[in-house]
Write a structure and sequence with these properties.
5 strands, two-stranded antiparallel sheet, alpha/beta
Length: 174
């Protein structure tokens, strides 16, 4: 079935020049580093007064390094990848700690971590990208520019915030 889909895409001039990878990744970072997260609950989002769930405390510098190391390892282990995802886990529950709140909007938090990872990816793997969705609580653009190798794919569903999908499509390129 995959071959049929690839053949159909080729015949319709829909061949891909870049493999897109924007799927939910934070839960995989946690699963791949279970012992580390068990030893460091502060790497998880603070929600309802507890460190819990599958979202990350992105203001934590050690967590940023862990996420960066995970992304670089994905690219080392899979040289054919064009992109590594840094998309949050599905669902809500972003960190409520004071340091994360200081970063501003959830978009600022999510895309801030993506920028940190993207800088390291570009240094070791020029031309490789970090992918995310503009989705749910982070569907709006952050208040700062993204690294050139951050790829953002807008989603039609689960848009929250003050803008419609059509407005977001206009805002993101700016």
């Amino acid at each position: 079935a995959l071959f049929d889909a690839q053949a159909w895409a080729r015949r319709n001039r829909m061949a891909s020049s870049r493999g897109i990878n924007c799927g939910h990744a934070w839960q995989t970072i946690i699963a791949d580093n279970k012992a580390v997260f068990d030893a460091h609950p502060e790497y998880r989002a603070l929600t309802g007064g507890k460190r819990q769930g599958e979202q990350l405390c992105v203001s934590n510098l050690a967590l940023q390094k862990l996420a960066t190391d995970w992304a670089l390892a994905q690219l080392r282990q899979n040289p054919s990848l064009d992109m590594v995802s840094m998309e949050p886990s599905d669902g809500y529950g972003q960190c409520e700690c004071e340091e994360c709140k200081k970063l501003g909007s959830i978009s600022n938090r999510v895309f801030g971590l993506a920028n940190v990872v993207a800088k390291a990816v570009n240094k070791e793997f020029p031309g490789k990208m970090v992918g995310l969705y503009a989705y749910a609580e982070h569907c709006e653009p952050p208040s700062f520019p993204l690294e050139p190798n951050v790829y953002v794919q807008s989603t039609v569903g689960f848009i929250t915030g003050r803008y419609t999908f059509d407005e977001l499509v206009q805002l993101w390129p700016k």
